[in-house]
Amino acid sequence: MTIKTERVGAWPFSRIGGLAGLGFALIIVGANLILLPADMPLIGAGVDEVVTFFTTKAVPAQLSSACTPAAWLCVVVFGAAAVATIWPRERAAGSAWSLVGFAGLLLQTATFVGVVAIRLALSATSDHTPAATAGLWAMHNALFTLNGVFLATAMLGLSVGGLRTALIPRWHAVLGIVAAAAQFVSASITPMVIDHEGPLGLISFVSWLLWVVWLVAYGIALMRLRPERQPLVA
């Protein structure tokens, strides 16, 4: 046990951060898979559908929310590892894209705390009158959709920073920038997205899937990084 502990303690921080990135991706996918069979109302769903879900299927929402604290811890460690890897080289070149990306990760985490808090409030409250539910659900939808701008910031910053320091390949950076652009567009049209269910919500969904792929690839890149092969600024 001591030998194994020492080995883990000797891991470079980039490997720990890479594992945290993979853990974050796994947890958020798992949390959504809990909600999927329960028919969690989509953004823009009517109040009656929301009331029905949170009065009859509150348990899946609570189980999904229970996963999120671990996810938030993982994403902060992942972001810190990315910055620790990229920032020293960026600083020498007078750049700070990794800090932009880390700021996006922190802001998206803070915003999603609000999203999860509203879900828990809807699950726990005994007041499911249309007026009370409509207010909470509207706030949930607005925060959920606007959070796209912070996901965009995270992917843009870490994609550009990772590419410039040769931490990630060009295709990975392009994937992140494309997903970031889609998330930014989705956040910019929030009033139209949350007004009612429609195809505009697919922009956020597709870009979220790209975000997960981007995360997994970034986590693997950090895990495979050797101390003697620290990235250089291009």
TrEMBL record:
Superkingdom as given in the UniProt entry: Bacteria
Asked if Glycosyltransferase is a keyword of the record, the answer is no
Alphabetized, the UniProt keywords read:
Membrane, Transmembrane, Transmembrane helix
Q: Does the keyword Lipid metabolism apply?
A: no
Parts of the chain that traverse the membrane? 12-35, 70-87, 99-122, 142-161, 173-194, 200-221
Signal peptide limits: none
Matching entries from InterPro entries are given as: DUF4386
Name of the featured protein: DUF4386 family protein
Q: Which organism is it from?
A: Nocardia tenerifensis
